[in-house]
UniProtKB/TrEMBL annotation:
This is Pentatricopeptide repeat-containing protein. PPR repeats lie at residues 18-52, 53-87, 88-122. The keyword Nucleotidyltransferase does not apply. InterPro entries: PPR_rpt (IPR002885), TPR-like_helical_dom_sf (IPR011990). Belongs to the PPR family. P subfamily. The keyword Repeat applies. Keywords: Repeat.
Length: 207
């Protein structure tokens, strides 16, 4: 509220606002889920003769994706590309995280494919976010399969990162065994020297 009052005072006193001020307001609106006010800020940017930048669009995408409003998030993504703003890894990771939280894994794979084709390679965080989405949805086998198939869809993903991701997945699986136990382990074929992609599978205890 204090920030909003300060913003209104700047407007009332005739100060020419720059993109830093507008982006700060959009970031605050994003954190507080003030969707309408954030869109108003975007409109004010355009009416003032300024051009939204990558920070502007990333804040809006994060706001909508965090709230599960993926249609709005992808709308903003389309808008930024139309205006010649190239999405970055943060942009795409935000979209991936939004879809993963909703369990929309077909859309997740589409985004990852788009990233690879457009030379914005997924990073370790990208794939970890997807794995977390599978586990949150209690799709443990799918989480295992996803990690084991990464090198097939993205052969540039390096082995040390894959090792860390596999270890993280195993550790997370073990932490999810409340009310159940680790019954067996699936061993995936090695995709390179020394690489271990074997993962524990969680099976709930019978009632």
């Amino acid at each position: 509220m204090r920030t909003e009052r300060a913003f209104q005072e700047l407007q009332k006193n005739g100060y020419k606002l720059d993109l830093v001020v507008y982006n700060s307001m959009i970031s605050i609106c994003s954190r507080n889920k003030m969707y309408i006010r954030a869109q108003e800020m975007l409109d004010l940017i355009q009416k003032s003769g300024l051009q939204p930048d990558l920070i502007t669009y990333n804040s809006l995408i994060d706001m909508y994706a965090t709230a599960g409003l993926m249609n709005d998030a992808t709308r903003i993504l389309s808008e930024m590309t139309i205006h010649g703003i190239r999405p970055c890894i943060i942009t795409f990771n935000t979209i991936v995280a939004g879809y993963a939280r909703k369990g929309c894994f077909t859309e997740v794979n589409d985004v990852i494919s788009y990233m690879i084709k457009n030379n914005c390679r997924p990073c370790e965080l990208t794939y970890r976010t997807v794995g977390d989405g599978y586990r949150k949805a209690e799709k443990y086998d799918e989480a295992i399969d996803f990690v084991s198939e990464i090198r097939k869809m993205d052969n540039s993903f390096d082995e040390p990162s894959l090792q860390r991701l596999a270890s993280y997945t195993r550790a997370t699986m073990n932490s999810r065994t409340e009310g159940g136990s680790v019954r067996y382990m699936v061993s995936r074929p090695k995709d390179g020297p020394g690489m271990d992609t074997s993962l524990y599978v969680y099976m709930p205890d019978p009632l």
